[in-house]
Amino acid sequence: MDALALEATSGKKAANGVAVAAPLPVQAPVKRKPAKKAKKAVVFFEVEILDAKTKDKLCFLDKVRTYFFCFFHLFKTDPQWYPARQSIRLDPKGKSLKDEDVLQHLPVGTTATFYFRDLGAQISWVTVFLTEYTGPLVIYLMFYFRVPFIYAPKYDFTTSKHWVVHLACMCHSFHYVKRLLETLFVHRFSHGTMPLRNIFKNCTYYWGFAAWMAYYINHPLYTPPIYGEQQIRLALIIFLFCQIGNFSIHIALRNLRPPGSKTRKIPYPTKNPFTWIFLLVSCPNYTYELGSWLGFTVMTQCLPVAFFTLVGFIQMTVWAKGKHRSYLKEFRDYPPLRSPILPFIL
């Protein structure tokens, strides 16, 4: 009996006297509504901002949800305090809080006290680097071409008879052109700005040393290295090797940080053999930088170059130790075998 016949005899007796039951109605599946997510309670803070030096109250903010709001309120209070110029801390002499810090994760109650310090006028890191590196490039070339008022008038626009002088000019120019291109296309800065006053200090260092080195290397009375071509060629190999190594490290560090982020990761060696030094050193970019200037010192056999290399090594050691300490503090699984700048030594 098909469904239609069964439905026609519903509630009646069949021919043999047996009652036929009507089919049960089919119920449609019940759709359950998704459970509503519980809304997180919004926490508001009362924030008091004091001057870090005088302890004077600058402002009091009510119903604050994000720490970054403090920057914009101070900027609204005084337009000269734009966010990059502000340093807000939990302690007057403590470290500045980071932009990504969240009020709920800071060791403060619902009523928080912050201390404000004016960092002074700011300038972008890109501008600083371009200024620092353009100066030495131009200054060195002025001495190389012996423009007037540098040496005696009879030497104006003359050229040196020693090929090492021309090689040194190419190496020096290559180094700073590389730095300029890396600033524009490779480096990703965790901080967008630095105090404006630092540019004068940095330029004095780079420009001053460039002029001092160039004066003696391009001097008409300059004498080539003692061991001649063998010494120069060995120094050139060291210089080029370290320049390639330095560039390789900068590329590896760039790839660790996505564009527009401040993410920090542990750098590890890549397929590039020049990055394998990461197994032993935390800041191999400084290691290769030191090697480049050691090669340039051997190539030119010039005392001002040696002094510049020494001063640069001291400064890079300070930077490398600071970065090494921050790596150890931030990452518990940081490789213990690494040294800051020189494997097993420093």
UniProtKB/TrEMBL annotation:
One record GO biological process: very long-chain fatty acid biosynthetic process
Keyword Transmembrane: yes
Record carries keyword Methyltransferase: no
Localization of this protein: Endoplasmic reticulum; Membrane
GO cellular component terms attached to this protein's record: endoplasmic reticulum; membrane
Primary site of residence: endoplasmic reticulum
PROSITE patterns: S5A_REDUCTASE (PS50244)
Pfam families membership: Steroid_dh, TECR_N
Membrane topology term: Multi-pass membrane protein
Record domain 3-oxo-5-alpha-steroid 4-dehydrogenase C-terminal: where: 193-346
Domain TECR-like N-terminal intervals: 45-118
Spans traversing the lipid bilayer: 123-143, 202-222, 234-253, 273-288, 294-319
The entry's keywords: Endoplasmic reticulum, Membrane, Oxidoreductase, Transmembrane, Transmembrane helix
GO MF, any single term: oxidoreductase activity, acting on the CH-CH group of donors
Homology family: Belongs to the steroid 5-alpha reductase family.
Protein name from the UniProt record: Trans-2,3-enoyl-CoA reductase b
Taxonomic source organism: Seriola lalandi dorsalis
Taxonomic lineage from the root: Eukaryota, Metazoa, Chordata, Craniata, Vertebrata
